[in-house]
């Protein structure tokens, strides 16, 4: 284990956290879309609220995958080959979702089809990403070479991974409701519906977190190791506190921005908690595996590769952050009727 391998472990976790926070709310909007937008104008508002930012948000997931490939190729090979069908379903969902954005406005006769594609393309990643994370945490069957030897897709579905998938979905949904309440025209029916959904969704996410944590502590954690125990405690407290702040802000009707920011802090804290509890493991081997866990020590790339990646990161990451600041500042404020003409 080297300083650079540890650095890239947490940098990849940071990239995943960025995706969870940023693409989380627009995936949530997509899943809520058929239930919360009652007519074409409300559908247009929901789409417009995420239209300028959704493609930039997805860059964080692509960058995380590329960083995993370059920094820890063995872990990349095991996860992407073992979860091949699940990965393809996620990519299919993201592609269908992107296509629905382009065709919804241009092809009015097929709008029901594009609405269904938008919903399905948002639901698949929102659910399957949590299931995949649950498998990496709980452990997957591997042979001595580190290859996945379980049943494709259906072998990845267990009670624990379903719970982690539902937890991720609940976080996406609550983030989507917070975003719509923040961006839809103030006082509109769409904005009021979104505001009413925030509280039950955040309570559901908090309850699922308690269940998943108890399940992991009693049945999963002994197979993993200690990780960063203090970091786990701190980020667990931060997650619970952020959702409690969001719930309190909703109960007091104090601000439209505070629940969204608190929800984002909760999403970041949840990802950081996962990283601290996994360290130094990248992929955990299940009890029936022939091979050992894939760790920083066994899967890290060469020092030269990690050094080159670090230099590229120092150049590229500030540019990405500036891009996001410019985009979110340019399209700040609520969506109004004039925006729907563009």
Radius of gyration: 20 Å
Structural class: mainly alpha
The helix tally amounts to 12
Residues in β-strands, percent: under 5%
Mean pLDDT reading: 86
So what's the overall shape?
A: globular
Main sheet: strand order: 1-2
Low-confidence residue ranges: none
N-to-C span: 52 Å
Biggest sheet details: 2 strands, antiparallel
CATH homologous superfamily title: Formate dehydrogenase/DMSO reductase domain
Return the domain count.
Answer: 1
What is the number of E strands?
Answer: 2
Describe the structure.
This protein has 342 residues and is mainly alpha-helical. It has a single domain, classed as Formate dehydrogenase/DMSO reductase domain (Formate dehydrogenase/DMSO reductase fold). Helix content is 76%, strand content 1%. The chain is built from twelve helices and two strands. It has a two-stranded antiparallel sheet with strand order 1-2. Helix 1 (3-36) packs across helix 7 (159-183). The longest helix has 34 residues, at 3-36. The chain is globular, with a radius of gyration of 20 Å. The mean pLDDT is 86.
């Amino acid at each position: 284990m080297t300083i650079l391998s540890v650095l890239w472990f947490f940098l990849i976790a940071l990239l995943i956290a960025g995706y969870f926070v940023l693409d989380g709310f627009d995936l949530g909007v997509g899943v809520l879309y058929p239930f919360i937008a009652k007519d074409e104008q409300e559908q247009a508002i929901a789409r417009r609220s995420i239209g300028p930012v959704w493609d930039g948000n997805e860059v964080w997931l692509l960058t995380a995958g590329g960083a995993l490939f370059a920094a820890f190729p063995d872990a990349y090979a095991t996860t992407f080959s073992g979860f091949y069908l699940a990965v393809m379903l996620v990519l299919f969902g993201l592609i269908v979702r992107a296509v629905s954005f382009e065709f919804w406005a241009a092809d009015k006769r097929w709008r029901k089809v594009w609405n269904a594609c938008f919903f399905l393309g948002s639901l698949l990643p929102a659910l399957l990403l949590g299931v995949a994370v649950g498998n990496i945490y709980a452990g997957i069957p591997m042979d001595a070479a580190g290859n996945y030897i379980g049943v494709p897709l259906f072998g990845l579905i267990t009670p624990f991974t379903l719970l982690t998938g539902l937890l991720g979905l609940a976080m996406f949904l609550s983030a989507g409701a917070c975003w719509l309440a923040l961006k839809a025209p103030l006082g509109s029916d769409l904005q009021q519906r979104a505001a009413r959904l925030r509280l039950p969704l955040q309570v559901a996410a908090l309850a699922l977190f308690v269940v998943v944590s108890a399940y992991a502590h009693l049945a999963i954690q002994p197979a993993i190791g200690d990780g960063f125990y203090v970091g786990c405690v701190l980020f667990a407290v931060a997650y619970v506190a952020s959702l409690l702040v969001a719930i309190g802000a909703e109960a007091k009707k104090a601000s439209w921005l505070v629940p969204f920011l608190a929800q984002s802090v909760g999403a970041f804290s949840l990802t950081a908690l996962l990283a601290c509890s996994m360290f130094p493991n990248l992929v955990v081997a299940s009890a029936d595996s022939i091979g050992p866990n894939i760790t920083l020590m066994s899967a890290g790339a060469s020092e030269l590769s990690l050094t080159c990646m670090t230099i590229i990161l120092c150049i590229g990451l500030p540019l990405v952050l500036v891009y996001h600041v410019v985009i979110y500042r340019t399209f700040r404020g609520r969506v109004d009727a004039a925006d729907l003409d563009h």
